[in-house]
Amino acid sequence: MGYQEIIAYGIVIIAVGYLIKKSFWKNKNSKKGSCGSGDCGCS
């Protein structure tokens, strides 16, 4: 396996891990209220 393949697989693994983490974080940390109305903590 060449170094290009190792780098490519590493990027894919990091991207998949990021997407999984992002989806679980969103489900776990859902806030009450909508972000459009200004009453949540995301400014």
The tally of strands reads 0
H/E element order:
H
Distance between the termini: 46 Å
Q: List low-confidence stretches.
A: none
Question: Major sheet: size, sense and barrel closure?
Answer: none
Shape: rod-shaped
Give the C-alpha Rg: 17 Å
Helix content: 55-70%
Number of helices: 1
Query: Taking all residues together, what is the mean pLDDT?
Result: 78
| Coarse structural class | mainly alpha
Strand content: under 5%
Descriptive account of the structure:
The structure is a single chain. The protein is mostly helical and 43 residues long. It is 60% helix and 0% strand. It has one helix at 3-28. It starts with a helix and ends in a 15-residue tail after the last helix. The model has no long low-confidence stretch (mean pLDDT 78).
Q: What is the strand and helix layout of this fold?
A:
Elements: H1 3-28
